Each structure stands twice: as C-alpha cells, then as structure tokens.
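Exercise 7.
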Amino acid sequence: MRDVLRFCEAGQGWLLETIRALVSIESPTHDKAAVDRCGRELQRRLEALGARVTRHPQEAVGDHLRAEFPSPAGQGGASKQILLLGHFDTVWDVGQIEVMPVREEDGRLHGPGVYDMKTGIALGMLAMRALLDAGTAPARIVMLWTTDEETGSDTSRALIEEEARRSAAVLVLEPSLPGGALKTSRKGCGDYELLIRGVAAHAGIDPSKGASAVRELARQILRLEQFQDVARGVTLNVGVIEGGTRANVVAGEARALIDVRVPTMADAARLDAALAGLRPELTGTTLQLRGAIDRPPLERTEAVVRLYHLAREVAAELGRDLGEGGTGGGSDGNFTAALGIPTLDGLGAMGDGAHAIHEHVSIAELPWRAALLAGLVNRLAKAL
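Solution. The predicted structure, written as tokens, is:
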C-alpha cells in the first residue's frame, strides 16, 4: 500500500489536470449538448488509460458512459466484476464557471461540480492507473459514469441496476462525509404531489356555496406533520404550496409538493400507506395523491459493513483512521444496495459545498483517497 500511495502522490499533478479539465467543461443535467461535451473528454481520457468505453445514447440527457478495463494477462476472467459508480452531470448552469472559476486557493480546488462529483471520477481513474502500474489490477473493473443523477436517474437507473447485478461489489465515488468518513447508509427519497379540488364561489356573496381547497390543504399539512418521526430519520417537508386564483374567490384548487426521506424500506412502506390513506376533512373537497419513494434507502446491512471494515483495514495501512456515517441525501448507490449488492458510498473527494457557491475539494487529501480506492479494489479482486 505504501508503494501505491507513493504512485498516487507522484500522480497528483496528473490528477489535478484531469479534474480541471472535467470541471472546466460545464455539464448541467438539463443541457444534453454540454453534458455530451464533457462526456467526450471523459471518454478520451478513459480510453487513454486502456479502457474500452461504450456510450449509451440518450435523447433528453447526456449519453451514459461504461468503461471496462481488459483483464490482465494470466488472470483469466472472473464471473463477477467490481463496479465503480458515479455521475458527471451537475446542478450548475452553463456560465456558472464565470462566477466560481476553477482555481486553487488555500490548499483547495474550487469550481462547479468539483466536489459533486467530478473529482471522484478522477480519483477512480488515478486508482486504476495505480493498479495497472503495480500489475495487481483485478480481472474485471467496470466504471459507470451517468448523466442524470441530479434529477433522479430516470434514464440511468435500469443501466445501473443491470451493471450492479453483474458485480461482486459497488463502490460509489460520491464525496465523503466530513473528515473523510464513508457513507454506510443513505435515506431513501420520494416526491409526492397532493392535489386538492374544492368548489369555487364568490367569497363575499356566496361563501357557503364554496368549499375551499386552500383550507383543506392547510388541514392536510397539519396531518402530514403527524407522520414524521424525526428522531428515527423519517421526515416530510412540504416545500411548495399553491392554491386559489384571487383573494375574493373561494379556492377551487390547491396543491402541495412533498419531499419524503426514510431510513429503511419498512419505513417507506408505512409512510406510503399513510399518505395513501389521507382523507378530506371539509365537505365538498377531494384529494388526489401522486408520487412514490423512487430512490430506496441504502441500509447499513452486514454486507455494507463488511465492505466498510475492508476499507478501514486498507486505510489503516495508509496510516489513516477511516470513519463511517449516514446522510439524508440519496445517490445511485441506493439503487444498487436495494438489490442486495454490497455497496459502499462516499469513496470520493474530501471537501465541502455540494450544490453551493463555496464548492471545493481538499488537494492534500487527494492522493490517499486514490490509494484507498486502489487498495480496496485490489482486496476485493482477490476474493473474486
């Protein structure tokens, strides 16, 4: 591991150049042309490492990239692969780089998407270089870099799950938790819309002939609060409300957009049933619920814990203590873990500012993160 670390330290210049190149090509999810420009650069760099890259064309979002590294001579072909997973779409519109340019400052590298999560992709590439240099690359490594994670992974989910089923383990290169800790749990996420229909009427002349959808919505929001269990991590947030047309008209329609987070699939089932069981309180109003828990939770299973302990052993050889924790945000690792595939998340960059103007990564921490990934892949490969 010390030799791998020295290789990664020597490759820091290459790593920073790669990160800069990827971050400089802005890639907001909704701009296919921009994302594909970044994808072409990423493909070129992956092929330069010896990967066989397959593009999965998409109509509305950027093309997803699958990169497979050939089996080293004499190692045969393992029945299972190790999957490195992440995305290169970002939340930042084209032009944001003028506001937050790619720059080094006080030991940090700044730029839109640098932390979430283009540095993670570059770390995966440096780890692969280290494995190839040491002659210890496993029989099969596959990288899957997708383009719509930030908007729910609608077009990539099937591809992610297909690759996961072929894999012995999935390593997600999303950013770490503070201090470099890995993510051994993530909440499941869901979006719901509660649509209420009432009866419109003149608020001054005929209020009794109306049934206010807005008043009904207010009652339902209070009802939703009762479904929460914040101590256990079950939360609902009514983030958007709309209703009515004019102050002097009893509202005929109203709606609420609801964000739901759950730590387990059992919680997801209970909460989904509770939402489906909502009933109107005011005469003359009706409710319609749309939505679901569309990103299952990444639960801290025994398989996840085994992966974490393996990573912790590698970190110890590098002279590091590696922590673990959970987060309320979801990633594509949620999908793979829900299939029962051992999944470990947060193996990417250390830094701060995901989706924020101060987004950055810590430069000094980059080499050991790449070495950690290389060591973990090597350990897993021996078990294939």
